[in-house]
Structures are given as C-alpha cells and as structure tokens.
C-alpha cells in the first residue's frame, strides 16, 4: 500500500530540514519567505512506498496568500493519507493557530514538535502527554536537524495513515459559533461528511472561495445563518473565531508548557 504524507507548518518551523532528512534530498534550507511556494515531493528513504510532500509554509489555511491556497488545496482536495504538522516548539503559541485549522480538516494528523534541542537548551519543559491530550492527536518531539525522533514520528504517521484516524473535534467554540457551525454543516449535505466541519467554519469566517463553491440555495441559507451568528459576535464572526482559537491555544500552552526563565507558566 502506498501512502502520501504531507508536511505542513509555519515558515521556518523546519519543514525542509525534515523533508531532507526523511527523503535524502537536498532542498534549500533557509528562511527566505516563499522558498517553498511550490510543493516538493520525495520518497521516504526507509520505505519507498511512502511519498512525502513539503508544503509551503503558512500561518493559516485562510485563502489570503498563494502559499495558503497551495497548502490548503493539497490538504482538503488531494487529501494526503496523513499530515505531519511540524510545530516549532520554541514558539508553540504562534504555531498552534495553523494546527487548529489542520485539525478542522479532519485529515489524519500527527504533530512533530520540532526544535526540542532549543527548548532543552533553554531549560523549558513541555508536557508532551498533556499537549497530545488537549489537542486530541499524537505529538512526537523531534530534532529535525539531527534526525532525533524521526523514526518514531514516521511510525506514528504511518499508523495514523493506515488507520485513517480522524482527529478529535475540539471543543473550542462558544454556543453561538458552535450552533452556527452545526446549522451550516446540516446545509452542506452534498459535501462529504469529513469536509463539512472545515467548510462550515470557513463559511462563518467569510471565506469567499468556499462560499462561492456552494449552490445558490445553500449559499442563501448559509448566509442567513452567518448573519444571525454575527449578531451575537459583535458583528464579526471571523474575528470571534480567531479569538476563540487564541483562547484555546492560550489555555493549552498554560497547561502544557513551563518556561524556565519566567519561573511561571506561559500566559500569553
Ligand atoms: P522551513 O521554512 O519550515 O522549511 O524551515 P527550514 O527547514 O528551512 O528550517 C528553518 C531553520 O531552522 C533553519 O535554520 C534550520 O537549520 C533550523 N532548524 C530546523 N530544524 C531544527 C532543529 O531541530 N533544531 C534547531 N535548533 N534548528 C532547526
Ligand atoms: K532556529
Ligand atoms: Mg522550507
């Protein structure tokens, strides 16, 4: 059985370093923005049946840049068997914003918590089990640059791909947004079951690509739900959803990350 596994993460999280380690290729590693706008493909050195894709680095799956559109189209349309979401462990808070959106796509996912060497050098402590529990997916600590943790990462990624294991749906929205998401999901009965959640959320965020892909009657009904939800979200459901994601991330980091230099848990 052949599996396709996509690497998705923020710019500079170490995607290309990981890609090179896994495939033995020598793609340019560096922090020029846009260096990986084209997705790159290779095969896993230890198992030629596994295709690895290095997606462009993004902070979100909104349709606001070429990188975001390439990454998200690959994830939601071509549907890899699994996504390895590479997270820079030295700035978990910022990186998890993309993570939450990847999880919303319901694609089987494992988190590769990269740069653990830097975390350890700083004396910070990350509770991997807690982080994994709160996010509802497996988290594997790695050092992409030295290869540490990559064997385990690939074992987990292949397991998740084989089992087609969908991530848990996280409880991060308030009643207003949750109920609007459910109502829009019901309207999307033509869409595949696993696509309804992320599409409903994107429609509530005012995503024009998703909204314009709807049939006219569904679009009209969905717009009514959005209007109603806006009334209870200070007129801006997109901002409200962003805010709720940040609140969830903030709580998660507070529970799972202990920074040495501040002497107390991270709060912002
Ligand atoms: P990309 O933008 O996600 O493709 O990230 P790159 O692979 O280009 O890496 C960005 C920077 O992080 C480079 O300087 C890498 O050498 C560095 N890097 C990648 N992985 C690690 C790691 O595990 N530890 C440390 N300390 N640095 C890393
Ligand atoms: K670095
Ligand atoms: Mg890169």
Describe the 3D structure.
It is globular and about 50 Å long. It is an alpha/beta fold. The strands form two sheets. The protein has a six-stranded mixed β-sheet, with helices on both faces. α5 runs antiparallel to α11 and α7 packs across α8. The relative contact order is 0.13. It has eleven helices and eight strands.
Topology:
Blueprint: E1 3-9, H1 15-23, E2 40-44, E3 47-54, H2 66-78, E4 82-88, H3 92-104, E5 109-114, H4 116-122, E6 125-126, H5 128-135, E7 139-141, H6 150-162, H7 175-187, H8 193-204, H9 208-212, H10 216-231, H11 237-256, E8 257-258
Parallel strand pairs: 1-3, 1-4, 4-5, 5-7
Antiparallel strand pairs: 2-3, 6-8
Helix pairs in contact: 3-11, 5-11, 7-8, 7-10
Bound molecules: guanosine-5'-diphosphate, potassium ion (K) and magnesium ion (MG).
Family: Belongs to the TRAFAC class TrmE-Era-EngA-EngB-Septin-like GTPase superfamily. FeoB GTPase (TC 9.A.8) family.
Subcellular location: Cell inner membrane; Cell membrane
Function: Probable transporter of a GTP-driven Fe(2+) uptake system.
């Amino acid at each position: 059985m052949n599996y396709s596994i996509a690497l998705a993460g923020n710019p500079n999280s170490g995607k290309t370093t990981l890609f090179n380690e896994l495939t033995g290729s020598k793609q340019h590693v560096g922090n020029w923005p846009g260096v990986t706008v084209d997705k790159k493909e290779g095969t896993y050195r230890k198992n030629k049946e596994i295709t690895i894709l290095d997606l462009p680095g993004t902070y979100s799956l909104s349709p606001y840049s070429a990188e975001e559109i390439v990454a998200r189209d690959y994830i939601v349309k071509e549907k890899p068997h699994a996504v390895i979401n590479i997270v820079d462990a030295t700035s978990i808070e910022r990186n998890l914003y993309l993570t939450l959106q990847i999880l919303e796509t319901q694609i089987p996912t494992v988190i590769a918590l990269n740069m653990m060497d830097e975390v350890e050098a700083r004396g910070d402590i990350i509770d991997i089990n807690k982080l994994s529990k709160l996010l509802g997916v497996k988290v594997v600590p790695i050092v992409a640059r030295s290869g540490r943790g990559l064997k385990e990462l690939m074992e987990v990624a292949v397991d998740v791909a084989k089992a087609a294991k969908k991530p848990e749906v996280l409880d991060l929205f308030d009643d207003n947004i949750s109920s609007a998401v459910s109502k829009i999901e019901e309207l999307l009965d033509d869409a595949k079951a696993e696509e309804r959640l992320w599409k409903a959320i994107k429609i509530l965020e005012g995503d024009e690509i998703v909204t314009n892909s709807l049939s006219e009657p569904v679009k009209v009904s969905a717009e009514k739900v959005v209007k109603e939800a806006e009334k209870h979200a200070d007129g801006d459901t997109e901002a409200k959803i962003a805010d709720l994601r940040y609140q969830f991330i903030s709580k998660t980091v507070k529970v799972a990350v202990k920074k040495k230099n501040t002497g107390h848990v991270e709060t912002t």
